[in-house]
Amino acid sequence: MTLPFEPLADDAPAALRGLDLLRIERAGPVLHVRLNRPAKRNSVSDELLAQLHTVWLHIAAIQPEIKAALISGEGAHFCAGLDLSEVSERNVTQAVHHSRSWHACFDAIQYGPVPVIAVLHGAVVGGGLELASSAHIRVAEASSFYGLPEGTRGIFVGGGGSVRISRLIGVARMTDMMLTGRVFDAAEGQQHAISNYLVGDGEGLAKGLELANKIAGNAPLSNYAITQALPRIADLSASDGLFMEALIASIAQGDDAAKERVRAFLEKRSHKVAKS
Asked: Which of 43, 66, 118, 137 is the S-S candidate for 83 at Cβ 3.0 to 4.6 Å?
C-alpha cells in the first residue's frame, strides 16, 4: 500500500534538515519520523539520539500544521536498543549524563506538543522498548518481539524504562524479562499491554496513520490535556488527582473548539458514540 507521506516543505525549520539518521516526512497534519540505521537494526547511537531529540525540540515550530506524529523504523526492525559499541567508552560520570540525555529525549516525546504513535515491527528491544514506551499509543505488527536483555549483558535500563515500561507491564513482569532474558512475541506483547493495536506485517504504518488522523481531528487543547495531565495525575494521591482533574476539565471545556464541538453534538451535526 502506498501511503501519502511527502518530504517536509521548504519552509520547515532548518534544524530538521540534514538529520541523516532519520527520515522525516508528513502526511497532512501527521509528522512521520523514521529511524534510519537499518544496518545496525536502528540501534540508538549518541548521534541518533541527538537527532531524535532535535526533532522534538523543534516540532512546536510546525505544530500549528502538525497535530500528531508517528515514529517507526527503517528496515526489518523498529529498534534494537542502545548501540553497545559506545558503552565501553564512558566512565561512571559520563554514563550518568548519557542516561539523562535519553531521559531528556524521551520526555520531549512523551510531553511534547502533539500525541505520538509508535509503529513497531521486528526487534523492540532494550532502549527500543524504552523509546516505544515514551509514545502515547503503540501499533505492533505481527513480527514484533520485545526484550530487555540488560541483565544478561551486565547493565541496567537507562532510558526511562524503569518508570515507563514498569507502568505498562508491571514491575514483576519487567523483572522477569530483565533477569531471565525472556522475550515476548507480538501476541504476548498485546496481552501484556505493550501494544494497543496488533496488525499484520506491513500494515502498521497504515493503521498508525489512520489513528493519527483521527487524533489530529480532535481539539488541540483536548489532545494536549490528555497527553500532559493523565500521566501526572497518575503520580498524585487520589484527592490531589481529582482536584487536578477538575481544573483540567474546566480549562478544556472553556476552550472555543470544545464549545463548538458540544454545540455540534447537541444540534445533531456530529455522530454519537457507537461501536464500529
From this structure: 43
In CATH terms, the fold of domain 220-266 is Lyase 2-enoyl-coa Hydratase; Chain  A, domain 2 (1.10.12)
Catalytic position from the list 47, 65, 89, 130: 130
Least confident of 50-54, 135-139, 247-251: 247-251
The pLDDT-based confidence of 272 (bands split at 50, 70, 90) is low
Does 25 participate in catalysis according to the annotation?
A: no
Tell how strand 68-73 and strand 116-120 pair up.
parallel
Is the CB of residue 212 less than 8 Å from the CB of residue 30? Answer: yes
CB atoms within 10 A of CB 184: 21
Give the three-class secondary structure for 214.
helix
pTM (2 d.p.): 0.93
Long-range Cβ pairs for the range 175-178 (8 Å, 24+): 177/146, 177/147, 177/148, 178/148, 178/150, 178/151
Fold designation for 6-216: 2-enoyl-CoA Hydratase; Chain A, domain 1 (3.90.226)
- The residue type found at 228 is Q
Cα dihedral sign for 61, 62, 66, 69? negative
- The catalytic residue among 47, 86, 150, 210 is 150
Distance from CA of residue 194 to its chain's centroid?
A: 12
Whether 86 sits among the annotated catalytic residues: the reply is no
- Decide if 12 contacts 64 (C-beta within 8 A): no
E-state strands within the chain:
6-7, 22-27, 30-35, 68-73, 116-120, 123-125, 137-141, 145-147, 183-185, 197-199
Ramachandran category for residue 19: left, alpha or beta (phi over 0 → left; psi -120 to 50 → alpha): beta
